[in-house]
Amino acid sequence: MLMLGFAGFMGILKIVLMALAAFALVDAAVRREDAFRAADKQNKVFWLIILGLALVASVIFSVLAILPIAGAVASIVYLVDVRPALRQVTGGGGPGRRRGSSSDGPYGPYNGGR
Asked: What is the distance between the terminal CA atoms of the chain, rounded to a whole angstrom?
């Protein structure tokens, strides 16, 4: 019974790792090439290759192998370091995002206490 629970957990973990790598790969694919250079990160082809290999490794190998773990680390690095830098360079927002001044607060522009 314990082994069935462990196998189920490992299966869910494998799906999560595949989804993480697939999301990072698709996100990197839709970003502009010049944004990678402007953010001073590696180029787009580098990230597409790394994230593609991460996705393939998470599909082919067991979760406990070293390659899916390295792929998960690469995906996490892309998502927490590269992606925010690219969003900052390209203006960030998605649909419905308000663009304002850097001095805008949550209730509108800050006018210096006047």
From this structure: 69
Nearest CA to 86 out of 46, 49, 33 is that of 33
Q: The pTM is what?
A: 0.74
Give 68: exposed, middle or buried? Use CB within 10 Å, 0-12, 13-18, 19+: buried
pLDDT bucket at 92, cuts 50 / 70 / 90:
low
Query: Residues 31, 81: contact at Cβ < 8 Å?
Result: no
DSSP strands (E only) in the chain:
104-105, 108-109
98 forms beta bridges with none
| Residue 22 to residues 31, 43, 103, Cα–Cα distance (Å) | 15, 18, 36
Sheet strands (E) in 35-76: none
List beta partners, residue 105: 108
Q: How far is CA 17 from the centre of its chain?
A: 12
User: Which H or E run contains 114?
Assistant: none
